[in-house]
Structure formats: structure tokens, C-alpha cells
Amino acid sequence: MGSCYGENIRLMVFGQSHAPAVGVTVEGIPAGEAVDMERLRAFLARRAPGNSEFATARHEADEPEFLSGLHDGVTCGAPLTAILHNRDVRTQDYAETRYVPRPGHADFTAWAKYGEARDYAGGGHFSGRLTAPLCIAGGICLQILERHGIRVSARAVEIGGETEKAAMDAAIRAAKTAGDSVGGVVECVIDGVPPGLGDPMFGGLENRIAGIVFGIPAVKGVEFGVGFAAARLHGSEHNDAFIVRNGAVETKTNRCGGILGGISTGMPVVFRVAFKPTPSIETEQESVDLRTMESVQLRVRGRHDPCIVPRALPVVEAAAAIAIYDALLSRRKERE
Amino acid sequence: MGSCYGENIRLMVFGQSHAPAVGVTVEGIPAGEAVDMERLRAFLARRAPGNSEFATARHEADEPEFLSGLHDGVTCGAPLTAILHNRDVRTQDYAETRYVPRPGHADFTAWAKYGEARDYAGGGHFSGRLTAPLCIAGGICLQILERHGIRVSARAVEIGGETEKAAMDAAIRAAKTAGDSVGGVVECVIDGVPPGLGDPMFGGLENRIAGIVFGIPAVKGVEFGVGFAAARLHGSEHNDAFIVRNGAVETKTNRCGGILGGISTGMPVVFRVAFKPTPSIETEQESVDLRTMESVQLRVRGRHDPCIVPRALPVVEAAAAIAIYDALLSRRKERE
Amino acid sequence: MGSCYGENIRLMVFGQSHAPAVGVTVEGIPAGEAVDMERLRAFLARRAPGNSEFATARHEADEPEFLSGLHDGVTCGAPLTAILHNRDVRTQDYAETRYVPRPGHADFTAWAKYGEARDYAGGGHFSGRLTAPLCIAGGICLQILERHGIRVSARAVEIGGETEKAAMDAAIRAAKTAGDSVGGVVECVIDGVPPGLGDPMFGGLENRIAGIVFGIPAVKGVEFGVGFAAARLHGSEHNDAFIVRNGAVETKTNRCGGILGGISTGMPVVFRVAFKPTPSIETEQESVDLRTMESVQLRVRGRHDPCIVPRALPVVEAAAAIAIYDALLSRRKERE
Amino acid sequence: MGSCYGENIRLMVFGQSHAPAVGVTVEGIPAGEAVDMERLRAFLARRAPGNSEFATARHEADEPEFLSGLHDGVTCGAPLTAILHNRDVRTQDYAETRYVPRPGHADFTAWAKYGEARDYAGGGHFSGRLTAPLCIAGGICLQILERHGIRVSARAVEIGGETEKAAMDAAIRAAKTAGDSVGGVVECVIDGVPPGLGDPMFGGLENRIAGIVFGIPAVKGVEFGVGFAAARLHGSEHNDAFIVRNGAVETKTNRCGGILGGISTGMPVVFRVAFKPTPSIETEQESVDLRTMESVQLRVRGRHDPCIVPRALPVVEAAAAIAIYDALLSRRKERE
User: ipTM value of the model?
Assistant: First the structure.
């Protein structure tokens, strides 16, 4: 299984790209949390397709319909379910790739795992569209976290090898023109995390965050603090000295990304996520016809982003918010 | 909670550095799997302290004592528990750091989380010693995986910024002489993974592997395939073409690290792990006395590795083996 | 949390009596299982209100809408979500009981747990209506189990103290006339369970079945085999002798209800479930106004069954089917 | 899997009757809970064999050895592991039953499930000896619950069909003399449970308690409040009226056993457990030789209780304490 996450809240994401709907159920949010629908809509709009020159032309209103869990706009303690109907579906776009897996996509592995019964249309349950319900759940967690003084913010720090905004845009535009795509790196900072969140070993904040962030399609790496660069530092360069500031213990620097031993230090939690370039490109690619086992040349049609990083920013925030909120609920059990 | 891992096997690691023992319970290994004790001992010896010029001088026999789960050397279906007694314990080494957290360690966050009740000696449950029981569980999984034709192998690809063996050794030696430490990068390759292992979204092989690997102390980053470098490639450069080889579908290259959509392609699963430099260094460091909230200078005593990468290799293999074996058991449910 | 069940399939039931919908998500059903919609509808109809003289007059079409998890009527491996819209909702019936908890209902405990934010209308998430999505999930499991030769069948063995069909009907009719209600006992038999299903201790078939059956509203007792009567037997009277029949080991009698040590013997699994009388009765009852903390007399209005046992039969079958199918999937992991 | 229980604490019981040890790991007990070893020992002594005329003659000191999780006698936040060494082991007693399953025991089902690899000696992991580690975990939970004003108490209400103390004793003595055994019913009352504990549906207190209590060997039925007798009452007889007492809402009667909708009312939680007669009896019984598939007559040797009810009392208390404490920790998450 895989579409379920969490220890104190339990999140289940369902739906396929071309099924009637995608959606999410979240169990475990305490009763009494108000959901600001306007803000949630604005948050979802950041992820929605069709809202920029770089995004796929697929249009979905992405207006969440809440089936349960709310009473007068406030969580009532029961599992919360929200769905997004799939309306702008063009399944015929995918007939061609039913037996010819697109390189870089889950088409082949879905076939290996599920065989003939798989839902191949539009990537099925592997579609990037599944990040929309993740954003519903995460958007609600973000609102709750803010009431605890915790803010989550993601930004692109690298796209197509570029680190400046204009150059990033140019890289995406160039890729689009070339029928190609580019990847990038997203940095996420979580401010206001109190010290003591997270658990030892497999329950560390790193494990919890990586455990959900790797569920975002196209993510191939996650690092915390200075991350891979830490491997090139001496201990004397990497260790963050402890100091007292405003009566509380802090670290002078934050190379550890706000996490020691899996547990928050009270400094900002910082992590970076590597996104591979969108695998759907117009360029002709080599594939195999799974019926005949013969090589074929494939040209992927359909509507695709030349770079998914801009739309991935709210998704990374959503994932981080869910992980942190889940850890925050654990914390409550430990103290009276 | 955090010391528990797995969906089909359930692994629980227990113990503190200076408690009577560290150990592990593994539930869910099917009955009938033989455990080769000689090979297990040899595997544990690779991790054991005191076996190289670079390792801590702490000596522990690391002879696992099996309390349950085996019958005549074969798994009997009941939960398997093995322990390692802690014998060479010098708690007085840590009296100094009880209220003066060591930079880069979990001392401060353990205090923030557990308060006065924490077991501060030797890092308590956060100690690197807890990787020993992880290696017992992983060593057994490695033996079972081999019977399925799956082999796991980790090697250091970078230490102290160096990528050649002699230079790596020199970097460690120089750090030791300087009373400092260095980090590094470990690459792990898993051969023989059949296509179709792993689940969508949060149950992907990346999530599963990262979810356990970030439980190894000092890990600050995990990447799959070309990882962060993927962010700098075009789709046309990164996508792995599908081809037919020996009658089966393969990818011509393996930039995705053997995983698409969270599910194995059948090619080797490849990931890299960033280890920060050992935080325990002899150099004087700035810290805070948690009783007085005054700044103090700390010089960490005790026995420490100038670089934990060499001893971490079997630990990464163990973690990977556990994750893959757990996914392999999932696979069995899906097909009759 | 509580609306989630299962180890190999993961079932999450959502919805409130007067929310837009009730529904269920089931993750973990292997790809390739056909769902016969006609049979599923017929199964749901057995539970549906308004189909007998004894049932509540509430009318719901109970036509499940599948949002995900099916492709051409066959499970595709992705989480399966089905919903039932709540259409015939008369919330005004419940305004009176918002602050005056109905005796025998969850009104008071929902208030104690969730406070003002609870969804009080129609019992909210505690409503018997939530057994409808349970029947969707269970109805599908029943179809799959039949392909494995396993059949589940529940019948009323006692209603209002009567054990004959005509007397049971008369007891219900008399209770209805009196504005009162009666309880009863349901016996469920599961034929075709292979030996070896279930796990030791907390994973026994008894634990698994009781763990889901106590989730059906009004259930106050569960017993296996001869159950409570076993307490009055000698070992020599209760033990089931082993014999060989058709080349296989069986037990001569089946007082243990097909389960020894939590694991199936291969004989029919037999359990009985005690249902309390429907708490909603027209008779005036003593309650408390939660605002003023003063005693009040309450007369429950609304539409209620004088006995829920007849409609509970498919619900017990559904619950049993889910538990057994989950255990069956565990079994697959253990053997190649 | 099956030897793991809990949502907020996670309990894993390991060991076999004739393995080096039996034990338990409990994760999730917050740091700072003192363990009174004297009281724990006294609690374990109530379950220990060899302490009454009715118990098996097997002698085990049952002195728990704590391997981890405590620091100066107080929980430190890390997983707590305690073991009991198995010393008085007479494996030869069981050679006879290796291939001749004892009626009423798990011998046959263990063989069906695990095959040749099973640990057959003394019932292996299915032995009643596994209730000793359950009592260690439960004994600690009982101490913590008392600090929250919650008390758990179990007593025998029926043995061998008798309900008076002297008659119960006589029934056991008569069974012993006859080489036979008797069962009984245990009633457990939990006082001081605050209103609002438990979750809807599968997370109800009934589900949680039954989910652990059915893990005690020989349990064949669990009922809450008036239980099966509720099936014979009218709603007007069974419903508990709400009243105000000492400024709080209570129920006038407690036929529901302190639970409505799965959630505690604040009244005592009351449940009863049916124990079957000990299956090990000296009387000759019919069985099958699994090698030859021929009928054989079996006379069970070894050391066995003619009635396990007296020793089961602390086990039921332990199980109830674990379930209630787990639910209490859930409650903390819901409110700040």
C-alpha cells in the first residue's frame, strides 16, 4: 500500500487522472479547527494547471467538494473527505501509450505491478493530478499550523541549472520551445517549529518529511540543512554552536537544518528537494511495444508542463505541513 | 514514536548506549528462513567498533543473543528478538555533557523532548550503537534476499571531499590528527530487484528507503539515480529509453536509479546517502549550560570515529535490505 | 482515530448522517478483481432502509458512486473509493436533541469528546448510516472471497428473546406498536476458510473479527464457537477431537468455532454478535439539557427501526468478509 | 502479524515457551513515568505459576529484567524492553505432541500456518507464558493510570458454572481430581475513566479492549455492560437515563458498561470475558498423527492448571490497562 500517510492524522489520497474524481480523506484532525475556504482555494490555485504560460493547458476548476468532516465550516472530529471532479478528460490522448510506456513515467512499472488491469489513462493513480488532493489536506494543515505560529514556505532555488529568477524563466521557455523540459530544486523553510518535535530513528523529522515528499511525482532527492554539502565539511565547520538568545537556547548557525537526532532544535527546519525534468517531452523517444516486445519510436502527445517546479511549490509546502502537523500532534501526547 | 519500521515485517529497535542492552524485534518474517550465524557475525563485524584505525576505541563483542523467533537456527514464525549486551560502558565520560549539549548531537533536542528523564549517557537511544541491532535485522534480511537473487552493496564514493580510496584514507587520517572529523557520501546498489516492487505515492521505494535510511545517525540527504544532478538535466537527457534485452523490457540507461513512479523497473536500484562529519570532535566548541543558561566552552571527550562512513557501509546495506524485503513481501500479496 | 481498519487492505469509512455523503476508501485490493455491480446492489439492498415493515421510513437510493479504483469494472490497484449521497435528510428532526442527548445514543459521548464542534445531526459519524459504506467494502470482499471458495452467511438466532422466526417477527411488531424496541443475536458462519489464517496474540481471527464487528453500532458482545457457554463446560466436553476426513485433518466437533490459538482450523468459523435494542424509542425518557444542566423529559422523534437486527445481517457479513479477506492476504505473504 | 498492539503506545510481545526468554517492548510511553518495581513484582506474582494449589507446577521466578527504556527507574522516552528468562524448561515433555496435536490447543493450527519450522515445544509463541510479558507492560500502564485516577479490577464471576467463591474452588478441585478442567467468566471494572475516551467505529473502546483481550489464550467471548443479556431487553429497559450528579452528567444506570458509540460516558467501564476450560487434560483424547495421518489416542502430560481463570485475572487487568492507557494518550492529542 502506499497512498496512506501519518501517525496521528491518517491521510489517504485516492483517484486516478481520468477517474470520476481525485480526493483525500484525513482522519485525526481534532474537532474545532476552522477551514478558511477562500484561503484554501487561493492555495490550490497556485498548483492548478492552466494558470501560467509554463503549465499544461489542461483546465480543471479544482474547486474542492467537501463530503464529510466539516460542520458549519469547522472540523467536527469525523474523517474529512474532499474531492475534485475530473472534468477536462481526454482519454483518447493516451490510447497510444497504453502498450508503449513513456520513458521516465510510471507506465511501465504500473504495467509490471498491476498488469492488464492497471488504469493507464493519463498516468492513472501516478498522475501529478493526485497532488491536488494532497494540497487540500496540506492547505488545511497549513491553516492550523499558522494558529500555532508555524509557517511553511517553498521557493525554487534552481531551475535548469539556473539560480536567478529571470534565467530560470528563460530556461523553462527555451525548453518549451525545444519540445523539451527542465528540472529544478525547491527549498522549503518551516519557521516557528518548537524544539522537541519528531522522534528518534525512523520517526525523525527527516524520515517523516522525506516519507511524504518522495510521494510527489518527479522528486529524486531530499536533503536537510546543508545536506550533501555536509559531506565535504569538517566537523568543526559543520557543527552548529549552541548559544542563548532571548533567554532560549538556539544554534548560532543552522547547518543542521533545524534538526538534530531527528528532533527539531527550534531553529527553522530547512530542506531541499530535487525535481527531475518532466518526462513528457515532444522529442521522439525510444520505447517498446509491450504486446509485441518490439522497439518503437514514441512521440508523447497530450498537455504537459515544460517544468513542474513552479506548480510544485505549494505541493512541497502541503507535504511539509502535513508532516509537521502530524509530528505536532505526537508532541501533545508527551506532555500534559 | 519512531523506533518501529515496516509494513509487512515490523521492526522495533530498542536500547540505549549505556542501558543493559540494545536489541531488535522483527515480526513478520515467514517461518522457515534459515539464519547463517557465521555470516551474520561477519556482517556485524564490518560495523563493529574497534576494528580499524579509524574507529572508536570502544570494544563490544557484538555477539548477538537470540531470545526468540528461531528454532534450530530457522525462523519459526514468531517475533524474532536479538540483543547485544552493553558491556564496555564508561558512563562517567558523559557526566560533563549531561547539561552541556554537544554541538551537532541530539543532546539538546533529547532534553527539549524528554526533559530531565532523558537517558543522556552516551547519546542514549540516539547513539550510533543503535545501528548494531539494525544490522542484525538487516543482516538476516540480506540472507533472505540473496535466496531471491537480490544483492545489496554499499561503498563510499566520497569522504572529506575526496573520491579516491587513498585520498579518502588520508582525509580521515588528517582529520583524526587535527582532532576533527570528516563526512562522506555512500552509494548503495541493489541488484536483482524484480520489476513491480514498491507502491504509489507514500509507499514508493524512494519513500520506503529514505524512511529507514534517515534513521541512521548523521544522514542528511538521500538521492536516487542521478538525484540532485537530475535537476540540471533536460528531459531528453534524463529519460531512460526502454529497450528489449534477453526478452525482457529494460532501460538503456539507469538515470532513474531503477525506480519510476515509486516502483522498481527491474534495473539496479541506486541511491546515495550524505553523511555529515562526526559531531564529536576534540576541538573546543561553544555550548550552553542548560541549568544556568550561560555560555560554556566544551571539549568532547570519549571515544569517537573521525569519520563514520566506513562503519556506516553495512548499516546502509542493512537499512536497504530491510526496506526491499518489506516491499518484496507486499508483492506476494498482489499475485497468486 | 477509529474509522480505519485492516493490515493488508486499509479501509477508511467517512461521512456523517447529514453530510453531503457517506463513503469508503479501500486500499490494498490487488488489481484484477472484477466487481459485479448487480450483486453489490442486491447486497446493499438487504441493508437499505425502507425495504421492510420493520425498518425506518428514511429512503435513500443507496446507489454507490465509484470515484476511483475501478477501471472497466475491475480493480486497478489504486485505492477504491465509493460514496453514497445523503439526499433524504431532515435535519430539523434533530434540532431538539442538539443539547439533549438521547439515552443509549452517542449524542452525549460525542459532545464529551468533540464539544460544540461535533456534527450532532442524525448521530453524525456515529449514525447507523455509516454501515452502508461498510457494506460496499464488505460486498466487494464477499465477491472476492467467493472466488477463493469462502462463503459468509449471517442469520438472526434470537430477537426479543425469541428464537423462532414467527415469534421474532411478533416481538418486533409488538415493540413497534408499543413505541419500544428489541435487540437480538446474530450468528455468522464462514465456510471454506482454509487452515492457517490468522496470527498469534492480537492478530488472531477473534481479535480481527471483534475489532471490526464492535464497530457496528449497537453491538455489545461477540463470542466464538460455543462462546460464553464454554465457560460452563469441562475441558473433556469442550475440546474438539482431531480426526481425518477426506485425507485432511478436521475436528470431529466445532465447539471452538473454527479457531484455535487465533488461527483457523479449516472448519467453519462461527461467531455470534449481541445487538442491544435500538436506543431510539418513542417512550418518554429522562435526559439532561447540556446548556442548563437541568433534567428534561425527552421523546425521540425521527424515523427509527424497532429492531435493527434484520438490517444488520448483511452488515455482519460485510464486516466478517473484510476481516477474513484481510487475513487471507496476510497468508499470501507467508508462502511462495 | 499479531504480536503488536496499540495506536499511541506500541507493544510488541515476543518469545516462546521454551525459547531463552519471553519479553515485551513498549514504545510511546512518555518520558518521566516512574515504575515501582515492588508493585510490579507483586502484580506479576498474581499471574505467576506455582503460587497456588490450582496452578501448574512449573516454577519461574518471573523477575523482569529491564534491558532498556528506563533511566534511574523512570521511563526515559526510549522504547522499554523487559524480559523474563525461561529457566524451568522441560522440552522432553512435548516431544510426544510434536506431530500429535493436542485438542483445543494451537498445535494443529501452528503446524497448518508455519509447517515444520514451527516451535512446537510448550505451545511455542502460543503458550500462556506469553501473558507474563503482557503483564509487565500492563502492570506499568496500571501504575500510570492510577496517577490519572483510573483503577482496573478483575474478578471471577463464574467458574465451572458456579458463582460463589467456595463452589468455584470446589469445581476446580473436582476437575483436578478428575484429570479434567473447567472454564469461567471474568468481569473487569475500570473506574475513573473520564468521559470522551475512545473513537468512533473501529476505534471504539469495545474494539480496543476486545482487540487485546482476545489475545489472551482461551478467551472465547467478550461482552460489555449487560452484553448478551441486552439482546433480550426492550429499549425502554436497556437505555440508561441521563441525570446530573455532583454537577456532572452521569447515567442513572450503567447497562451500557460505560460506553456509548465506542466512547466512554464517565461511568465505570464494565466488561466480561469468557474463558474456555484449559485444553490440557489428562483424560485420553482422540487426535491424529500428522506424519501418518492416522488416528491416535493422546494423553497430555506436562504441568497444567485445571482452571486458568484465577491466574487470568491480572492478565485481564493488564490488557484492559493497556487499552485504556492507549486511548487516554489519544485523548491528549485532541485538546490543548
Answer: 0.96
Instruction: Give the pTM.
Output: 0.97
Q: Are D260 and C108 in contact (CB under 8 A)?
A: yes
Q: Across-strand partners of A264?
A: A259
Task: Note whether A236 and A301 are within 8 A (CB).
Answer: no
> Which amino acid is located at B22 in the chain?
V
CA gap D10, C254 in Å, rounded: 34
The whole-number pLDDT of residue C193 equals 98
Beta-bridge mates of residue B80: B26
CATH of the domain at B194: 3.60.150.10
Per-state percent for chain B, helix, strand, coil, to nearest 5: 35, 25, 40
CB contact under 8 A, A119 and C76: yes
> Which of D104, D178, D222 is opposite residue C238, by nearest beta carbon?
D104
Provide the mean pLDDT of chain A.
Answer: 93
- Specify the DSSP class assigned to residue B136: H
Closest-CA distance of chain B to residue D41, Å: 20
D27-59 pLDDT per residue, tens: 999 999 999 999 999 999 999 876 666 665 555
C-alpha gyration radius of chain D: 21
In the three-class reduction of DSSP (H, G, I as helix; E, B as strand; rest coil), residue B1 is classed as coil
DSSP string, D40-72: HHHHHHHH-TTSSTTS-S-------EEEESEET
Task: Return the residue in A27, A199, A329, A332 with the most chain D beta carbons within 10 A, the one to mutate for interface testing.
Answer: A332
The CA distance from B37 to the nearest CA of chain D, in Å, is 17
| Neighbour count for residue B236 (Cβ, 10 Å) | 19
Task: Find the mean pLDDT for residues B12-30.
Answer: 96
Which residues have a Cβ under 8 Å from the Cβ of B162 and sit 6 or more positions away?
A: B168, B170, B171
Residue B81's DSSP bridge partners are B25, B68
For residue A320, give its domain range: 2-335
Specify the residue for cell string 544556568: B292
* Cα of C219 vs its chain's centroid, Å: 8
The C-alpha cell of A61 is what? Answer: 476548476
Domain count, chain D: 1
Confidence tier at B333 by pLDDT (50, 70, 90): confident
Which chains neighbour B (Cβ–Cβ under 8 Å, 3 or more pairs)?
A, C, D
Q: Is the pLDDT of residue C268 over 70?
A: yes
- Residue B74, chain D, CB below 8 Å: the answer is yes
In the structure grid, which three cell numbers stand for residue B223, read together? 538521492
Q: Which candidate from C175, C203, C261 shows the least CB-CB separation from D109?
A: C261
DSSP, res B117: G
Query: Is the alpha carbon torsion for B281, B285, B288, B294 positive or negative?
Result: positive
The answer for residues whose C-beta is within 8 angstroms of residue D54's C-beta and 6 or more apart is D172, D173, D176, D305, D306, D307, D310
Counting runs of H as helices and runs of E as strands, what totals does chain D give?
7, 17
Q: Report chain A residues whose CB lies below 8 A from the CB of B158.
A: 231-232
Percent of the residues in chain A that have a pLDDT greater than 70, as a whole number: 93
Strands (E), chain C: 4-5, 10-15, 21-27, 65-68, 70-71, 74-75, 80-85, 151-159, 184-191, 219-224, 242-245, 248-251, 259-260, 263-264, 269-275, 285-289, 294-298
Give how far B188 is from chain D: nearest CA, Å. Answer: 29
pLDDT band of D154, cuts 50, 70, 90: very high
Can you give the length of chain B in residues? 336
**Facing B31 at nearest CB: one of D8, D28, D118:** D118
Burial class, D92, CB count within 10 angstroms (exposed 0-12 / middle 13-18 / buried 19+): exposed
DSSP state letters, C214-279: TTSTTEEEEEETTGGGGGGSBHHHHPPPEEEETTEEEESS-TTTTEETTEE-SSPEEEEEEEPPPS
Cβ contacts (< 8 Å) between D75 and chain B: which residues?
117
